[in-house]
């Protein structure tokens, strides 16, 4: 399986990244260190996770050189106004203790105003925010820019502008319950790489996800774990995969992947596409924006 995917900038992004959403304080630094020791070279963070300082410290203490690690962070909804973007970037850089990010994403297609309410204008037209993201690349603070939780319509809406830099990446929920084959195909056709968050179904559903009969069958056949089946499946679909764990044995397990034989890959792809798609928990529901419309 490919250890990396190439981006339009020429940069190569490691195909497995450690997810750190909802990793509790004190756990997350240790998880990052275990991951770097196990061979991970990609950490997926965000300003809103509130753990950038601890993640940055763990990276430093690992003594793996900064240039060998891919660091992603994300612009929170309250900072979409063009005059706020650079402040948000600088705050993330200072907390992570680094002079640049490998990747910076618009975290949600939802802009908030000062009162934490939806700014509908900037939500429907994120181009002013995007232009600032482009400027951050020109200034050397960020190497690649992208989006997260964008559907096809929102990406078409953004890329209809005369962009200097196109979104390289869209990070979205992708798992057995919500495999999004249409978005995957559209993204491939348009040169946008997808990143899979909640690749094991997230904490609420992981147990059930690992017990799907098709997956257990494949795991037994190949003598690997169900989690390894899923992580391999994601990479084989052509996406980056961001498994979250704070458990050392699982962090190590999730990094050991191998290509699934084509017939077994297709069995899993078919099983995932056969049931009614069901998203995991989604904060945007509470914001009053239907991000899928
Ligand atoms: P923990 O962090 O306690 O190890 P997702 O990546 O889909 O968001 O799923 C994250 C959830 O899956 C977490 O609850 C995590 O638990 C659990 N998890 C991660 N890797 C494995 C694994 N290899 N086997 C079982 N559970 C796992």
UniProtKB/TrEMBL annotation:
PROSITE patterns: ALDOKETO_REDUCTASE_2 (PS00062), ALDOKETO_REDUCTASE_3 (PS00063). GO terms for molecular function: oxidoreductase activity, acting on the CH-OH group of donors, NAD or NADP as acceptor. It comes from the Eukaryota. Residues 16-262 form the NADP-dependent oxidoreductase domain. The keyword Oxidoreductase applies. Substrate binds at residue 107. The active site is at residue 49. Residues 273-293 are annotated as: Disordered. Residues 282-293 have a biased composition (Basic and acidic residues). Keywords: Oxidoreductase. The keyword Lipid metabolism does not apply. The record marks 74 as: Lowers pKa of active site Tyr. This is NADP-dependent oxidoreductase domain-containing protein.
């Amino acid at each position: 399986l490919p250890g990396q995917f190439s981006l339009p900038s020429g940069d190569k992004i490691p195909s497995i990244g450690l997810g750190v959403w909802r990793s509790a304080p004190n756990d997350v630094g240790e998880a990052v260190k275990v991951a770097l020791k196990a061979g991970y070279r990609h950490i997926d963070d965000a300003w809103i996770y509130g753990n950038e300082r601890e993640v940055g410290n763990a990276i430093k203490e690992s003594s793996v050189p900064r240039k060998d690690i891919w660091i992603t962070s994300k612009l929170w909804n309250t900072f979409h106004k063009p005059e706020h973007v650079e402040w948000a970037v600088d705050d993330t850089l200072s907390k992570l203790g680094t002079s640049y990010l490998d990747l910076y994403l618009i975290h949600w297609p939802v802009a908030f105003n000062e009162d934490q309410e939806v700014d509908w204008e900037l939500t429907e037209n994120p181009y002013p925010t995007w232009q600032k993201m482009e400027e951050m690349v020109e200034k050397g603070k960020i190497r690649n820019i992208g989006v997260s939780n964008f559907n096809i319509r929102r990406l078409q809406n953004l890329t209809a502008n005369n962009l200097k830099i196109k979104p390289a990446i869209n990070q979205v929920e992708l798992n057995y319950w919500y495999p999004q084959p249409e978005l995957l195909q559209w993204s491939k056709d348009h040169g946008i790489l997808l990143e899979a968050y909640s690749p094991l179904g997230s904490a609420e559903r992981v147990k059930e996800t690992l017990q799907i009969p098709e997956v257990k069958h494949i795991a037994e056949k190949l003598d690997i774990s169900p989690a390894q089946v899923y992580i391999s499946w994601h990479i084989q679909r052509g996406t980056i995969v961001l498994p979250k764990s704070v458990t050392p044995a699982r962090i190590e397990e999730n990094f050991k992947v191998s290509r699934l034989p084509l017939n077994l890959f297709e069995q899993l792809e078919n099983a995932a596409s056969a049931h009614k798609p069901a998203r995991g928990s989604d904060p945007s529901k509470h914001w009053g924006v239907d991000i899928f419309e």
